[in-house]
Predict the structure.
Amino acid sequence: MKTAFITGATSGIGKATAVMFAKNNIRLILCGRRKERLVALEKELSNLTQVTTLQFDVSKRDQVQNAIQSLPENFQEIDILINNAGNAHGLSTIQDGDIDDWDAMLDINVKGLLYVSKTIIPKMIANNNGFIVNIGSIAGKEVYPNGNVYCASKFAVNALNKSMRLDLNEHNIRVSAIHPGLVETEFSDVRFKGDIERAKTVYQGFKALQAEDIADIIHFVVTRPYHVNIEDLVVYPTAQASATMLNKN
Ligand code: NDP
Ligand code: 8X3
């Protein structure tokens, strides 16, 4: 039975991936800051697979290390790491951007991914086995107006994904990135700081990707035969042709 460590499992893509993995008999370590959601998810999925949860903020180095060190014995061997935790904070021109938003995006999306990876990779190297899936974005392939720092954070994820592939190859660790376009999750609620009405308009007038669509793809990627490693996968809703071209009714 494989064990997966999923960051950002309390919502959206991470939560859907947890459900997909549980249905496919993968043991789960579910992470996030919202304790009540972790507790509810553990309860929901425990009848399908073994589940443990870790509450920590990926951008806090000490919390990351302490949480991972506290894992129960039977969850210490991690086969699959899904680096998914992240969000956009704000949508402004570079001249109007809020520096706290910039800090949050770089600290969570980039440094958080690094802190978690840095703590888990040694275990994978020791096992001479592992799989890391980094959730990037089309924002890491193409910048769009007002996307500036979020795009920069996802360009960094793209670069780190490629770097991990080079550095970890000799240790038999597979590394993949998935870059979704618009997925209907809590992403826009966070970007627009709880302005739910504005967030809803992002997904109106077309059929957005659903978190389950990305979970399905993640599961496909991690279940290829050992000699197969998908490096980079870009996925859009059918109505979206690029970061800046969306066909709304
Ligand atoms: P959600 O807002 O639904 O989920 C974000 C998850 O990240 C939550 O579980 C949240 O948990 C966790 N998270 C956020 N900040 C932190 C933190 N500081 N420490 C620990 N966990 C944190 O959004 P999505 O599911 O859409 O986003 C998941 C990933 O997908 C992100 O990396 C995002 O950039 C990427 N993505 C999303 C797209 C979209 O259109 N939705 C498209 C392309 C990529 P909690 O708040 O409990 O800590
Ligand atoms: C999320 C998709 O287009 O809002 O990464 O940046 S987008």
